[in-house]
Amino acid sequence: xxxxxxxxxxxxxxxxxxxxxxxxxxxxxxxxxxxxxxxxxxxxxxxxxxxxxxxxxxxxxxxxxxxxxxxxxxxxxxxxxxxxxxxxxxxxxxxxxxxxxxxxxxxxxxxxxxxxxxxxxxxxxxxxxxxxxxxxxxxxxxxxxxxxxxxxxxxxxxxxxxxxxxxxxxxxxxxxxxxxxxxxxxxxxxxxxxxxxxxxxxxxxxxxxxxxxxxxxxxxxxxxxxxxxxxxxxxxxxxxxxxxxxxxxx
Length: 250
Hints:
Layout: H1 7-16, E1 22-24, H2 25-29, H3 32-38, H4 49-62, E2 65-70, E3 73-78, H5 80-89, E4 103-109, H6 116-128, E5 132-135, E6 138-141, H7 146-155, E7 162-168, H8 175-183, H9 185-200, H10 208-225, H11 240-249
């Protein structure tokens, strides 16, 4: 995906991959030391206590998580609104299941140095949608994000300055080779392989709980760089799905 995940989004992802999809309300909401214990898979020690508390207030206020009573105790859990957000913002939940239409979406732009801030916003948006850089000022994606791009370009007054083209894969060489060049798929596959080795050797670890937390955290890191390409563009022995299913069971 290539997008920079905000703290509250990382918390949502962590909850989505948690085994029971709930965390104790008192542990996660009132005392920071206990927040660290209950959220270690999300690597919260990277964040300030105030940032974590602010993120939880935001998630509660916006309705992405809700308090429920289970066996007489209050818990937090994801809402349907949160699930829809995850599906919308993180392609891993839906995009790869689609069959590739053998077309590429090219975004071409030439924005001057004087408008560097706008240019940076555009690049951030493209990375958020999973576009990869084919060459300078040319980004590419196998997915149809026309509506997302139109809304963004209109809001930033970039219509007519940024061009979105749809092209067939012709005279572009092997599509998997192109995908590897743009998104470094072989390197990502190696990262998944390394994580898989950690998973299958988890039973041999002395502190299995701590190692499982580290694996979940490493997986969340990989999600941030995985463009979730169609299977047509991935190696036959793609490890992404295998690792994801294993992480969910941890």
